[in-house]
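This is your field. Have a critical look at the following sequence-structure pair:

***
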Amino acid sequence: MSERNPMRGILIDPVAQTVAAVTLLNGELDTIYALIEAEPIDVRPVTERDDLWIDDEALLRRPAPTCYAQWGDYAHPIAGKQLILGHNDEGDCISTQLSVERVERAVRFTRREFRGIREEPERRIVHPVLGPATLHRRVAEFGPEGES
């Protein structure tokens, strides 16, 4: 999961409202855990070659977070520190090709009240590869922007 040379990432901090370049000596999970101050983590695509590493349990923390980064067209704001790294064809972490300026334009910091997680009714679907399945979906709910 790592490359031999230092790699360039971008760290987003919703509490400090900063977007900053960072240098990682490796792309090992322990290094990522330390940078975003979280474990477990989740990864979401940002571009075809760049990923957003986030705190998978940020909304479960107490006290509940009130500072978020609204990232591009994601359905809801993201709490906790976030790290952007690139990946190669094998899935290994590499330096991001995104600039801090581009990420600053794509991220909007916001304050909101996290109101909880709503479970939607189960739905039966037919997956094209797996066949019949039951879809379970949870949706985070937030108060209006500026409320916290």
